[in-house]
Amino acid sequence: MPGKPIRQLLAAVAVFAVVGAAVAALLLFGEDGPTRPGAPPQESSAPVTTPAPADRVLVVKIDNVAAARPQTGLSAADVVYVEPVEGGLTRLAAVYSSRLPRVVGPVRSARETDVELLAQYGHPTLAFSGAAPEILPLLRRASMTTATEQRVPGAYFRDAARPRPHNLFARPGLLPAGTGPGPRHVLATGAAPGGGTPTAGHTVGFPAASYDFRWSRRDARWHVWLDGSPLLTTEAGQAATATVVVQRVAIRRGAHVEDAAGSVSPVARTVGTGPVTVLRDGRAFEGTWSRRSAGEGTTFTTSSGEPLPRAEGPVWILLVPR
Predict the structure, then answer these.
(1) How much is the pLDDT for 177?
(2) Is residue 125 classed exposed, middle or buried when 0-12, 13-18 and 19+ CB atoms within 10 A define those classes?
(3) Rounded CA gap, 95 and 122, in Å?
(4) Residue 49: pLDDT band with limits 50, 70, 90
(5) Torsional sign, CA 183, 189, 192, 193
(6) Which residue numbers delimit the DUF3048 domain (predicted)?
(7) Domains along the chain?
(8) What is the pLDDT of the chain when averaged over all its residues?
(9) Is residue 280 packed enough to be buried (19+ CB in 10 Å), middle (13-18) or exposed (0-12)?
(10) Which of 46, 65, 236, 240 is most buried, by CB atoms within 10 Å?
């Protein structure tokens, strides 16, 4: 029939068009595919994590300004440090040891605070997007493996749905393994001491950031709010933690690093001693933090000298200038 070859030709053209569109989409968006604002930068929205070796320690610097939210992979962290940075803002350093998320980010730059802070984890891997020229030599001399996009390009990708510089994500399973004592050895866990004040919520203020921790009896967690809004993760909803440590620290000037407005980046001193507030089990405990040297972990005691360990589960530690 004369129309049959024409129909076959049209069908072949349609098939080639579909295949061509698929190839073009892959070239445009990369292997992870396009993502929606606020959606996980991965082909699946399931919160996929994998167990990590007992001696593995990975630390990822995570952006937390408004344009970087919601973050991905934050719920899998064993410890989340909130560090003061220039302009009164904060940045997160998430420590992964017991499990690794499939994807984590947005990944941002390192700070001088990281050198002393992370020494207590032995020789961890630090994943970050870069650092000021004055800080890079300090990071290279420190006891850590630095893993940037330039050093391990296959472990990073850009999310086309987010603006730069808030769109760099890492695949932790492809990053080099850091080694050392994990959070369980660095930050003791145990039963709460006697006393404490029943607390439904606690606010921690930085010059340009405000964190709220609200106790939930239903899931025995402190839910995290930032600047008046729930701090959301793409894989698990609102961020939550079993323990909150408000560690008051001294601040010093380090390498002369400034932001675009000329604000100098502060350096938090995490070796020494100072006041601390620990939130756990729906109660607030006042006490003292102590760390004798960079290679040792941080301990917490009550005002009467009793050990003040964290509860089982994740912990957020806020390094608040005093």
Answers:
(1) 86
(2) buried
(3) 13
(4) low
(5) negative
(6) 53-173, 205-317
(7) 49-181 (3.50.90.10), 197-321 (3.50.90.10)
(8) 85
(9) buried
(10) 240
